[in-house]
Amino acid sequence: MKNIKIFINKKTSLTTTKIVIFVVGLLYIIGYPLIFRHNNYQLNIVITASILSIISLGVWLTFVIGRINIGQGAFVLIGAYTTAILLVKLNLSFWLCLPVSGIIAGLLGFLIGIPILRLKGVYFDMLTLSLTEAVMLAMLNLDFLTQGSRGIMNIPIPGALKIGSLTIIPAFTPGKYLSFYYLTVILLIIILFAIWRLYSSRIGWNMQVLRQSDTLALSSGINIAKYRLISYTICCFLGGIGGSLFAVYIQSLFPTSFKVIDSIYYMLYCFLGGLNYLIGPILGAFLMTFSFEGLRFIQKYQEGIYACLMIIFMLWLPNGLMSLKLKKRTIFKNQPH
Amino acid sequence: MVILEVRGLKKTFRGLIAVNNLNFDVNQNEIFALIGPNGAGKTTVFNLITAYLKPTEGSIKFQGKDITRLKTYEVAHKGVVRTFQNTNVYRDMTVLRNVIVAHHLYCQANDWEHFFNNRRAREDNREIMKNSLEILKFLELQAVQNETSRNLPHGQLRLLEIAIGLAAHPKLLLLDEPFTGMNPEETDRLIAMIRSIRDQGITIALIEHDMRAVMTLSDRIVVVNFGKKIAEGKPKNIQYDEKVIEAYLGKPDEKEGI
Questions:
Q1: Model pTM score
Q2: What is the CA angle A59-A61-A62, rounded to 5?
Q3: Taking CB atoms and an 8 Å cutoff, what residues of chain A touch B84?
Q4: Structural domain boundaries, residue B26
Q5: Which of A148, B4, B153, B193 has its CA 20 to 30 A from that of A226?
Q6: Mean pLDDT of B230-247
C-alpha cells in the first residue's frame, strides 16, 4: 500500500512538472512577445536573459564535472569578435558566422582545456579567472583584426537566410526586437533540449560521476579526461554562440565588452538557480536580469540593494532556488502514510 | 593457469623504497591474499597493478599481455578492477544509481547513440538496470537501493564498493581490505559472498588484516614486509612460518629476555 501511494505521488508530481514546463514554455514563446510586441524595452530584458542563459548553461555543464569555471567571459569575447570580424571585414552572412563563432570558441576551449583540466579545485578556478583578462588583452593588442581599443562599430544586424531562391529566415528589421526575440528564444530551447539529452544520457552520468570521485570513475573504466574535455568544449561552444548573439544584438564590440565581472556573473546565475538542476542557470539568469531591471526606479541604490539581495539569497538558499522544490519533496516523503 | 604475473616490481618514492623486487603470480579462479604489517607496501602493489601509480621497475602481465604501461582506465578495460581502502563510492547518488553508472564497460552503444537514445542505447539501459538489480540482490543491498549512499552504515558501504567493482564485469577483482570495520557476523556473510563471486569465474585478490577471514578464505597467501616478499604458500603453512611470525610479532630479544 505504502509503495503504491509513493508511486502515485511520484506520478502526479511528474505531470505537474510537465504542465508547469508547458505553460511557462508557451508564455515564453507566444504569450510574452504577443503582449509586448512593440515594447522594445520589455523584449530587450528577455532577449538579454535568454542569451545569458545560453552562456551560463555552458558554465553549468562544467559544474557538472565538479569544476568552478570563472573564465566563460573569455569565450564569449572570442565568439563575439569572430562574428564581428567575419561580418564587418568579410561580409559573410550572420547565419554562417553564428555556428563558426561557436566552433572556433569550442576549438580554442578544447585546446586550452587539455592542459588546464588537469588542475583541480582552486588552481583551476584561478587559471580560468585569468583567462578572461588574457583574452581581453589579446583582443586589445591584435589591432589589425580587432581595431584594438577603438572597437568594432556598426556590426550589421542579421540578413536573410536563403537557400537558392527560397527565403528561410527574412532579414531583420532595424529598430525592431521581435525577430531577435524569436532567434534567441528558439536557440535557447534547442540548446536546452540538447543539454538535457546530454545530461540524462550516459555521457551526462559519466560527467556527474567525475564531480564525486575521479579515482572510482577510473576504476570503472571511464576515461575521465575525455568526459572532462567534452564538457569544457561544449561550455566554450555555448560561450561562443552567446558572444556571437550579443555582437549582432548590441551592434558594437570592445575588448572590455565582457570583463571578469561578467564571467563571475555567469557563474553566479548557476549558483543562484541551483547547481543540481538543468533549469538552474536559466532560472538564475532570468531572475537576476529581471530583478536588476526591476530595481531601476531606485537608480542610485540599485547595485547596493542588488548586492544585499544576493547575500540574503545565498544565506537563505545556499543550494539555489531549485532547492525549494527539493525541500518540499522531502517534507512530503517524511509524512507518515 | 596464471592470470596475473608480477615480475621484479619496484616502486620508490624519492628515497623510500615502497615495493622492492616483488614477484608473484595470481592463478585463474583462486582467492589470493596479500598480507603484511602496516606500511608493508600492499596497497602500493594494488596501485601499481591498476596503474594508479607507475612502477619504477618491473613488469605486470595480465592474461599474458603486458599492462605495465597502460592508463588506469585501460587496465579496467582489460578486466582488472579494484576497490579502495578508504571507502570510495559516489556519496550523493542512490545505491542503485551508483551501480548503474559503474556499468560503463558494459555498454554496447557508443556516446552518440546514447545521446540520441536509439534502440541500442535503450537496450543497453534495460540490460544495465536488470544487471544492477541482480548485483544488488546478490550482495543483499536491494532493501536500501533507493537510499542515498552517504546515509548507509559502514558495512553496507563496503558491500556497495564491491557492487560497483562487479558492475565493471571484471576478470580479476582486487579488494583492498574489504573486511575492515565489519562485525564477525558481517565478516562471515562477506566470506560466503566472495566465495560465490569466485564461483562465478571472477578471480579475487585481496589485501586484508583480519586474519580469521584471510585464513578461512584464501587459497594462497603472499606475505610482504618492507616491500619484499617474505613468504608464500597455503594459509596453513603461512601461519607457522617463522619469518611471518617475526614480521608481525617481532624477534625475541635475548638481552632483555622477552
A1: 0.88
A2: 70
A3: 215-216, 219
A4: 2-249
A5: B4
A6: 85
